[in-house]
């Protein structure tokens, strides 16, 4: 089954897509797909109101559902591995945040809750201008988090999520990549958390979902609730900021503005809502489905082997169905 699932995921050849598909407990990897629910395809979810934002799903149906729960203890270090294809994590253009949620369930093998999701980890835009995805790529697809020491024992779903913002200037456009792992947690703690609902935790107008990566903004508000704290308190929204720059521009509410953090020397204007298309026959030459097919300084294919080349912004066009 593992070989078949891997073949389905990677044979499609989708450019830059990724999938959370393996867990380590205190540095010990549990096996590819073990304890996870994996879809047939490593593509994103763009509709934040879809039921598929829980653990993935249509248009990427869950076809590999592990019969195992992963045994962990409160306080354990859990590593998540994201993979696009062997030797590849995700395209470097797909910058964005990474988050991890948990939800207590009666049976991790069968339950798929919409509510009760509490966040235990988030990382967005660092003061050095690096995104969580940049750090993930540098770490060969691995990010490590801690199971809260105070949570009550029992079964939990463990939801790892990456959001790619390269086409998020308009909604839908942000690409959400998430999968769920099935955990059985032993703990001496007793804390439970009400959490948020999926769908419901995000909206298409959230500044962390609709975000122009190229407009010169140097702050980013991570969507959803803040991570829970075993010491109590009411965490405030996380807005991460790059170092001060020498010039500033006006940005939308809830952000601080300045020149871009990238190596470009000019600020890209906010994109207009336009769409350019080039329809290709399936099986022809050109970029693969969901691959990049245009953008400033783009030197690759500008036609699509499958789908239509759709303009997202000055820097990015993508082959979409």
From TrEMBL:
<dbReference type="InterPro" id="IPR049892">
    <property type="entry name" value="AA9"/>
</dbReference>
<protein>
    <recommendedName>
        <fullName>AA9 family lytic polysaccharide monooxygenase</fullName>
        <ecNumber>1.14.99.56</ecNumber>
    </recommendedName>
</protein>
<feature type="domain" description="CBM1">
    <location>
        <begin position="285"/>
        <end position="320"/>
    </location>
</feature>
<keyword id="KW-0186">Copper</keyword>
<keyword id="KW-0479">Metal-binding</keyword>
<dbReference type="GO" id="GO:0005576">
    <property type="term" value="C:extracellular region"/>
</dbReference>
<keyword id="KW-0964">Secreted</keyword>
<feature type="signal peptide">
    <location>
        <begin position="1"/>
        <end position="16"/>
    </location>
</feature>
<keyword id="KW-0503">Monooxygenase</keyword>
<dbReference type="GO" id="GO:0030248">
    <property type="term" value="F:cellulose binding"/>
</dbReference>
<comment type="function">
    <text>Lytic polysaccharide monooxygenase (LMPO) that depolymerizes crystalline and amorphous polysaccharides via the oxidation of scissile alpha- or beta-(1-4)-glycosidic bonds, yielding C1 and/or C4 oxidation products. Catalysis by LPMOs requires the reduction of the active-site copper from Cu(II) to Cu(I) by a reducing agent and H(2)O(2) or O(2) as a cosubstrate.</text>
</comment>
<dbReference type="GO" id="GO:0046872">
    <property type="term" value="F:metal ion binding"/>
</dbReference>
<keyword id="KW-0732">Signal</keyword>
<keyword id="KW-0119">Carbohydrate metabolism</keyword>
<keyword id="KW-0624">Polysaccharide degradation</keyword>
<dbReference type="InterPro" id="IPR005103">
    <property type="entry name" value="AA9_LPMO"/>
</dbReference>
<dbReference type="InterPro" id="IPR000254">
    <property type="entry name" value="CBD"/>
</dbReference>
<feature type="region of interest" description="Disordered">
    <location>
        <begin position="224"/>
        <end position="286"/>
    </location>
</feature>
<dbReference type="GO" id="GO:0008810">
    <property type="term" value="F:cellulase activity"/>
</dbReference>
<keyword id="KW-0136">Cellulose degradation</keyword>
<feature type="compositionally biased region" description="Low complexity">
    <location>
        <begin position="235"/>
        <end position="279"/>
    </location>
</feature>
<dbReference type="GO" id="GO:0030245">
    <property type="term" value="P:cellulose catabolic process"/>
</dbReference>
<dbReference type="GO" id="GO:0004497">
    <property type="term" value="F:monooxygenase activity"/>
</dbReference>
<dbReference type="Pfam" id="PF00734">
    <property type="entry name" value="CBM_1"/>
</dbReference>
<dbReference type="InterPro" id="IPR035971">
    <property type="entry name" value="CBD_sf"/>
</dbReference>
<dbReference type="Pfam" id="PF03443">
    <property type="entry name" value="AA9"/>
</dbReference>
<keyword id="KW-0560">Oxidoreductase</keyword>
<keyword id="KW-1015">Disulfide bond</keyword>
């Amino acid at each position: 089954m593992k070989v078949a699932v891997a073949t389905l995921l990677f044979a499609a050849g989708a450019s830059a897509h990724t999938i959370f598909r393996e867990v380590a407990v205190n540095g010990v990897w549990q096996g590819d797909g073990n304890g996870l629910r994996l879809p047939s395809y490593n593509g994103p979810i763009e509709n934040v109101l879809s039921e598929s934002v829980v653990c993935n799903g249509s248009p990427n149906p869950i076809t590999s559902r592990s019969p195992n729960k992963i045994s962990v203890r409160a306080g354990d270090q859990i590593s998540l591995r994201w993979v696009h294809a062997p030797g590849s994590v995700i395209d470097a253009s797909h910058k964005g945040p990474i988050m991890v949620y948990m939800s207590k369930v009666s049976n991790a093998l069968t339950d798929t809750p919409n509510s009760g999701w509490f966040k235990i980890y988030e990382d967005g835009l660092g003061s050095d201008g690096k995104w969580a995805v940049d750090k993930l790529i540098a770490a060969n697809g691995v990010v490590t988090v801690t199971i809260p020491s105070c949570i009550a024992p029992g079964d939990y779903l463990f939801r790892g999520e990456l959001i790619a913002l390269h086409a998020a200037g308009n909604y839908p456009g942000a690409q959400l990549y998430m999968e769920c792992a099935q955990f059985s947690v032993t703990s001496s703690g007793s804390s439970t958390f009400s959490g948020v609902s999926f769908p419901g935790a995000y909206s298409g107008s959230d500044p962390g979902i609709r975000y122009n990566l190229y407009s010169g903004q140097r702050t980013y508000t991570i969507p959803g609730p803040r991570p829970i704290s075993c010491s109590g308190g009411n965490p405030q929204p996380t807005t991460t900021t790059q170092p001060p720059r020498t010039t500033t521009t006006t940005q939308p509410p809830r952000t601080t503005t300045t020149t871009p953090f990238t190596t470009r020397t000019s600020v890209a204007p906010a994109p207009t809502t336009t769409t350019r298309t080039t329809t290709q026959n399936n099986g022809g030459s050109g970029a693969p489905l969901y691959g990049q097919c245009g953008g400033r300084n783009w030197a690759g294919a500008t036609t699509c082997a499958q789908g239509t080349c759709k303009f997202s912004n000055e820097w990015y066009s993508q082959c979409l169905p």
